[in-house]
Amino acid sequence: MHHADLPPDAPLRRADRALHADVNGTAVMLDVEGGQYYGLNEVGTHIWGLLDRPATPAEIAADLPRHFAVEPAEAEAATRAFLADLLERGMIEPA
Amino acid sequence: MAEVVWLASYPKSGNTWTRALLAGYVGEGAFDLNALGKGVQITGLRSLDDLLGVDPSLLLEHEILALRPAASRLLARDVAARDLPTFGKVHSANVETADGDRVYPAGAGRALYVVRNPLDVAASTAPFFGWTVDRAIEVLADEAHVLNRLRGRFLGVLPEPLRSWSGHVRSWLDAPGVPAHVVRYEDLLADTAGTFAAALRFCGVAPDPGRVRRSVEAARFERLRAREAAEGFRERPDFAAAPFFRRGTAGSWRDELTPAQARRVVADHRATMERLGYGDLVAEVDSLAG
Amino acid sequence: MSDAPHHYVAYGLHVASDWALPELTEAPPAVAATAPDLRVVRGTVPDSIGEPREQRVTWAARPGAWRHEIPGVARYLVHDDGREVVVEPTGGTDADVRAFLFGSTLGAVLHQRQLFVLHGCAVATAHGAVAVAGVSGAGKSTTLAELARRGHPVLSDDKTVVRFGEAGPEVLSGYPTLRLWEDAVVRLGEAPDDLAPLREGRRKFLYRAPAFREEPAPLRLVVVLNAYRSIAADGDVPAVRAERLGAHDAVQALLLQTYRRRIVDGSGLRAEHFAWTARLAGSVPIVQLDRPTPAETVGAVADAVERQLAAAAEG
Prior knowledge:
The structure holds three protein chains of three kinds.
Chain A: E1 12-14, E2 18-23, E3 26-31, E4 37-39, H1 42-50, H2 57-67, H3 72-88, E5 92-94
Antiparallel strand pairs in A: 1-5, 2-3, 3-4
Chain B: E1 4-9, H1 15-26, H2 36-39, H3 45-52, H4 61-79, E2 86-90, E3 110-115, H5 118-129, H6 133-140, E4 146-147, E5 160-161, H7 165-173, E6 180-184, H8 185-190, H9 192-202, H10 209-218, H11 221-231, H12 253-256, H13 259-275, H14 279-286
Chain C: E1 6-10, E2 13-17, E3 25-26, H1 29-32, E4 38-42, E5 54-55, E6 59-62, E7 65-70, E8 74-79, E9 84-89, H2 94-112, E10 116-125, E11 128-133, H3 140-149, E12 154-156, E13 159-165, E14 168-171, E15 177-181, H4 182-187, E16 196-197, E17 204-208, E18 217-229, E19 241-244, H5 247-256, H6 261-266, H7 270-283, E20 286-293, H8 298-314
Parallel strand pairs in C: 2-4, 4-9, 11-18, 18-20
Antiparallel strand pairs in C: 1-2, 1-3, 5-6, 6-7, 7-8, 8-9, 10-11, 10-12, 10-13, 13-14, 14-18, 15-17, 16-17, 19-20
């Protein structure tokens, strides 16, 4: 899916197949079906934390400038790209 | 559905060059000589360990041989879902097992068979393995020769039964159910791009002329030699006196084999040389004085 | 109680066996009198365990069962959540049968029991235990032999089991028999021909550790050993490099160094294993040691391991 297709107001949630764990403040993930392992950086860890309950791309993008030195436009683009990636890998799904 | 392509050759016949071309094509030109295995997957001990599910250091030579056909089939199954073919470097002959199967069996992939005339192979294996030319000629005729025999330490590579040079050719080109495409080293030298493009087509890849050109350029012999000098090269055995990329020309045997030695090679391999289009070399050796 | 003729202890388990297993430590009478944790029985292994979830050439696994066959040697079945191994010899000598029993088969037992199994060895030191993991050829067993020679009691070879106790992760005591290549045996000053070959015809030998620890020890450090081909000029040997891995790389390294992780997948225990892996990565330093080859680095690697352990112990 191209991330232009990601509706900003459609809520997303973590998929059951996405196992995750916290290692000293860093989120690590395993796709329990495919066996693929992912590590997240600081921003990715933060976004994954926000997906603790269903959240929309717009809500997530709006939250980032409160925690990281980032312009809103940049935050929105980065969020959409990351969420589209997670969606394509089956780690999140429409809520 | 992606296939396994066995990149098979007798040692010192152009396998590394072909792999460099493939790595350059897949990786768009630039590649790290010491990481050839990343762009092009190499079959080795660790791969076999995973396929067998048992530590090969616990197995005897005949047990490893008996299990290899099944390992080849499992590899073909493991990689079937990929987008690109998986290339497995092989020096072993495609030998038969005790129960009539092949190490690289029918239905588990195809073979890109890289071959070089045995006169030059003799001239080239001698310094590489630290042998005299006479010993190299003997090995080329030895049906029982095994590369990397098991020893008392971890080697990282598997025993590879080579057979004679002619036996090696026959084992691959006559293996039932294993489609094979011959890549002659001499043709690679004369027309690298055309020969490589034909090989790609055989592997199910439609060659893109621009990418072919760039990978030919990146893998050019002089560059490989220069890189070897600058970076070292992982695959060179510790006992070797000569650098891996030695000459990169066809016909060096004329300087390095005596007429008597050349005649011995032709006597040992005449039929197979003629089969592979080396009839001109056979005639040349037949007419040698001395 | 068990009427099996032989009783041993390994990885904290009371093993009751129909075979003599001289690689293992004999169980004290008080232990031998209890119900065994693991039974090794002579029996018939079925041709198939049904639809496998994961399969390699010599084994097939599904939740609850793992079947292994080495043609001409033996068949093995691990089931009952890792509480029983059925062995059916098909032509191998007792030594052959044990060679594969203590290979992937023991790995399947430990995985079915949901223990965390690293592909590597471990020794106990004054600073606690260190586990040395790495791919085949990284130099694990040679390093183990050198650490043992320096007087550190061995905890395990090839398969190192980590369990979370009340005080944090601890390494279980395995068994005192190492599997060493001929070159490592010679380096230890032993004569290979005085030792039993792992298999008749192979130059790998069974070597009794000079000192062995029979109790668990607190895990302080995991070393991931990695051999790389050095291109340095002769006489200019690059140093052994140590790098502490961050969370992401540490988890990845532990996943990669898990003993035959495909057995975990086939047993349907991926989720449990991942949770243990993350927990371990968060509990102790995971340090990658890069050693240059073909240089002789046995001493330098052992020095680096000892140095890293001392640093980890200081906190």
